[in-house]
Amino acid sequence: MPYTEGEDRHQIISCQIRCFVEEENPVRVIDTYVESLSLEELGFHMYSSTKAGQKPYRRGDLLTLYLYCYMNGIRSSRKMETETKRNIELMWLIGKLQPDHGILSVFMKNNQKSIKKAV
């Protein structure tokens, strides 16, 4: 055939997501940077409650998501939510977590000063 063809959509993918994120990919820098930060010292709101309900997301994961989106010109929490479902680099970066736009919006609102310190 004269066209380049992709893989069959119905075939099981044998490679894990990490195969799609090369060693030189800038997302690895974001991951390393956030891991090196002391989020409590920067003033991020940390949750230590044992209340019933949904478990909170790690602040580091949300900050990583925010930084990736910021670097790629994505400012809306709704667009961030969409990116977590379709962007392979982002899936790798935050371990396929998919926080909704409400969680992202509250995180950004409650941690504005801390985010500015981290950036």
From TrEMBL:
InterPro entries: Transposase_InsH_N (IPR008490). Residues 18-109 form the Transposase InsH N-terminal domain. This is Transposase. Pfam families: DUF772. It comes from the Bacteria.
